[in-house]
Write a structure and sequence with these properties.
Strand order of the largest sheet: 1-7-8-6-5-4-2-3
Number of helices: 8
Radius of gyration: 25 Å
Distance between the termini: 26 Å
Number of strands: 8
Number of domains: 2
Shape: elongated
């Protein structure tokens, strides 16, 4: 790992522009070093809803298409015999409006469910830097009691009263998640904390993005073993592992002392 990497993440970055010009990128294979072990079941609830609405709209388009063709033939037949195209004209206008609305819903769902960019995550961190570090301190205190995970609708352990916490404590966490744009919450490990800003897919295949707090530098496995680095926050599926096959990787980008943003792919 280069000396410039150590130098770059030991000092606090003054802003986004300095980050963009001095940051070095780290790619870490999932079976080595520090990696977020995430339950990539779904995205946050709002993203899941947008995706579902878009899928339903697309399904309606496919369902309406053959019905529309049949009705066009029927209305055209009646209008032809009546020597006017009143029914067909009204139907075409109506079905055209419906299709436009459904297409707009599909586009909106696709846009609203897009994952965040590296710049967006970094900017969000610096806007709420104090709150992020206060949250880390709070988690470290509760971690000593046995708290491992607080998600958007579940915790580990599931019965938090057994470790001396209350539902109000968990509600406070979730209010902070909304403020800090980490809707999927956190995973607390002995040497690191993962904050999940975005997650989608299944436990065996999916992707996630978020923040890593760690006092240890993630290992630069890919550069050391493959001989080249990758740009973060791209579609990782376009890259192949050292042996020519798709593999699971996490790209870390240092943004502050002990703080990273990550882009994770489980394939």
């Amino acid at each position: 790992m280069s000396q410039s990497l150590h130098d770059s993440h030991t000092d606090i970055y003054s802003g986004i522009n300095e980050l963009d010009s001095h940051t070095h990128y780290i790619l870490n294979r999932k079976d080595t070093g520090i990696t977020p072990s995430l339950d990539l079941t779904v995205g946050d609830r709002s993203m899941e809803l947008f995706e579902l609405i878009g899928i339903l709209a697309l399904a309606l388009i496919f369902l309406l298409f053959p019905i529309s063709i049949c009705l066009i033939v029927v209305f055209g037949y009646f209008d032809f015999h009546q020597k006017r195209f009143y029914l067909l004209k009204r139907f075409l206008i109506t079905i055209g409006i419906i299709y436009c609305i459904l297409i707009a819903i599909i586009i909106a769902g696709a846009v609203l469910s897009l994952p965040p960019t590296g710049h967006t995550l970094t900017e969000n961190y610096f806007q709420h830097k104090k709150e992020f570090n206060l949250l880390v301190n709070k988690i470290q205190i509760d971690q000593k009691k046995g708290l491992e995970r607080v998600g958007d609708d579940w915790t580990r352990p599931s019965d938090i009263t057994k470790i001396g916490l209350t539902q109000e404590n968990i509600s406070d966490y979730r209010r902070e998640f909304k403020i800090l744009s980490i809707p999927r919450g956190f995973y607390a490990y002995p040497d690191r904390i993962n904050f999940v800003a975005y997650a989608t897919g299944l436990s065996i295949s999916g992707s996630s993005m978020g923040y890593l707090y760690s006092t240890k530098t993630p290992k630069n496995y890919f550069e050391e073993n493959c001989g080249y680095s990758l740009e973060p926050f791209k579609d990782l599926k376009q890259y192949r592992g050292c042996n020519g096959h798709y593999q699971s990787y996490t790209i870390y980008q240092p943004i502050d002392r002990n703080w990273y943003i990550y882009d994770d792919l489980t394939d």
